[in-house]
Amino acid sequence: MSFPVEMKPITSIASQPIATDQEEALMNEICITVNEDDMAIGSRTKRDCHLMDNIDKGLLHRAFSVLLFNKKGEFLLTQRASSKVTFPNYYTNACCSHPLFTPLEKEEKDGLGVRRAAQRKLFQELGIEPNTITLEDIKYITRILYKSPSSGLWGEHELDYILIVHKDVELKPNPNEVRHAVFLGKDDLRPFLEGWPISPWFQLIHDRFLYNYWDNLNNLEKFKDHKTIHKFV
């Protein structure tokens, strides 16, 4: 069983794609390159980091995935915009992006730089004002390492920080980033996803971590593991 987007099963916001140069501009952002132990080793453009030729040579960059739950315990699922270079129109978690090679976002203690990047991207992609989700609201849980080709020239090879936000927020999705956003209850997520493409990082999170986190939103401390890098390559 699957829900067409138009049924809007819980709380749903649809964005209309528009012509934009934003994705091209974002491809020139400077990402943090790392080794498989998450040691920063340099910087490359977002374009460089997502070219399969470079990925096949081992280029790896730091990233993050935000899992956002509201106070009713519903999970925010988003559909990536059609203009995305990798995995356009795929369903995924609330926000997925990269810290930039800047002093503020390179800071590693307690994942502070990554959490700053998440706060920035939650505003850029979903219109969530930074003063409504503080750095303290963004919980750094653990890290995963994965690699996946997308289509043609592009792919993903990321050391991905899993971050969780459990808070009510107002969404104003940026149509250049998000085609559709919907809050779903635990019993609704799997049926909704049937028949839809799912981003590879969210598939890993969904299959291995998500429901344990979902069952323990008020006790996430026990899942914090800043030593392990779960490697799926």
TrEMBL record:
Its required cofactor(s), as named, are: Mg(2+)
PROSITE patterns per the UniProt record, alphabetical: NUDIX (PS51462)
Q: Name one GO molecular function term.
A: isopentenyl-diphosphate delta-isomerase activity
The family database entries (Pfam families) matched by this protein are listed as: NUDIX (PF00293)
Which reactions fall under this protein's catalytic activity? isopentenyl diphosphate = dimethylallyl diphosphate
| UniProt xrefs under SUPFAM superfamilies | Nudix (SSF55811)
* Associated pathway: Isoprenoid biosynthesis; dimethylallyl diphosphate biosynthesis; dimethylallyl diphosphate from isopentenyl diphosphate: step 1/1
Family per record: Belongs to the IPP isomerase type 1 family.
Query: What role is this protein assigned?
Result: Catalyzes the 1,3-allylic rearrangement of the homoallylic substrate isopentenyl (IPP) to its highly electrophilic allylic isomer, dimethylallyl diphosphate (DMAPP).
Tell me the protein's name. isopentenyl-diphosphate Delta-isomerase
Organism of provenance: Tetranychus urticae
